[in-house]
Amino acid sequence: MQTVNYPKSGDVLSEVLDRELRYAGIPIIGIAWSVGNVRVDYSDLATPLQMAQGEAIVAEHVPIDPVQQVADGSIDAAIVIPGWAHWDTATANAWGQTNIEQPLTQARADLSAMALLNLTTFKVVIGRLLDILNAMWTLQRALGQMIIALRNNTWPQLEE
Hints:
- Strand 2 (28-34) and strand 3 (36-42) form a beta hairpin.
- This protein is α+β, with helices and mostly antiparallel strands.
- The protein has 5 helices and 3 strands; from the N terminus they run βαββαααα.
- The protein has helices at 14-23, 48-60, 66-79, 89-113, 119-154, and strands at residues 2-8, 28-34, 36-42.
- The protein is rod-shaped, with a radius of gyration of 29 Å.
- It is 61% helix and 13% strand.
- It has 2 domains: 2-64, Alpha-Beta Plaits (2-Layer Sandwich); 67-159, no CATH class.
- The protein has a 3-stranded antiparallel β-sheet, with helices on one face.
């Protein structure tokens, strides 16, 4: 067995690199990764040319930086928030006005105008309030998703 250590920064998916080396027909016993280092255990059957090919494959292997993966994923997470990722301030304010402020104002006016609250009107009022709560939940969920995406972009290591 011949062991060669190659410097390599970032996380290396050992099983992927192992598969790449074996697919290239390089006789290896196995590989191991530790921070900053990839160890390849070549079989005694490996020729100097095959070991040079193995070194090239290790050099070309793209390391995986988990912190960068989280940061990159944060942009994807923000983009899929329905409608919210691309809104400007005016659009966000208009949505809040239409879906929360106007219905609340109307519900207050309806309650104030009622001299008598019977079961039918009570159901209507509760239905309108539930619609408002549903809109508020939609807003809260989107804000939570955006906060997590912003956090992951700013401090990707926190997701661990």
